[in-house]
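Mods, move this if it's the wrong board.
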Amino acid sequence: MSTTVSEEQFSDGTISGRGPVDAHGVKSGRWEFYYRSGTLKGVGEFVDGAMNGDWVWTREDGTLMRTGTFVAGEQRGQWKTYDSAGDLARTTDFH
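Not the wrong board. Structure tokens:
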């Protein structure tokens, strides 16, 4: 099945997300999401339109905010949240 790159936009036309979609327009593959400023907000994989695998989220200033894993769109395993200095602030377990 072929894929094409799709873009999502904020109301002002600024790109909010970008990644591949299949022939039916379903997200599939590595997507990147952005703040309105253009700074990377989050990155991870989609499988059949659902978040899947490891994801990384950052703050608008580029510092690491959160990491974790999705399985078929649901948070699973240990998620880590970091403070603005980059230090581990908390871990949360999802089953």
